[in-house]
């Protein structure tokens, strides 16, 4: 696949942190990398590589077909489905915060 994730399901504790590693094919090296939340049949961007970072969501692209999403200060309401997104390609991740 053009975009995939190392772990498609991640768990964290309230107030803690989680990280997700997203992998992409070389043709997407110069594309914007995004982390979005799936809600109401739409994907809402919560972080991306070409804008100032949300303080609780940071994206770092290693430039070698991988980028990492770090979510800090988790809340119970952060639980749900997210997508690693590059260009038009997406890979789903389920987050469970307890």
TrEMBL record:
Q: Which Gene3D superfamilies match?
A: Immunoglobulins (2.60.40.10)
Give the record's GO CC terms: membrane
Q: Which residues form the Ig-like domain?
A: 1-94
Does this entry carry the keyword Nucleus?
A: no
* Keyword Transmembrane carried by entry: yes
Matching entries from Pfam families are given as:
V-set
Question: Which SUPFAM superfamilies does this one have?
Answer: Immunoglobulin
Q: Which keywords are on file for this protein?
A: Membrane, Transmembrane
List locations, semicolon-separated.
Membrane
- Judging by the UniProt lineage, the source's domain of life is Eukaryota
Protein's name according to its UniProt entry: Ig-like domain-containing protein
- The species this protein belongs to is Cirrhinus mrigala
């Amino acid at each position: 696949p053009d975009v995939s994730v190392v772990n498609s399901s991640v768990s964290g504790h309230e107030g803690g942190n989680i990280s997700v590693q997203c992998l992409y094919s070389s043709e997407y090296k110069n594309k914007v990398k995004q982390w979005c939340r799936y809600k109401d049949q739409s994907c809402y961007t919560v972080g991306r590589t070409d804008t100032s970072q949300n303080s609780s969501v940071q994206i770092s692209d290693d430039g070698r077909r991988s980028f990492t999403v770090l979510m800090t200060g988790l809340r119970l309401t952060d639980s749900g489905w997210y997508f690693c997104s590059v260009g038009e390609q997406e890979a789903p991740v389920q987050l469970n915060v307890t």
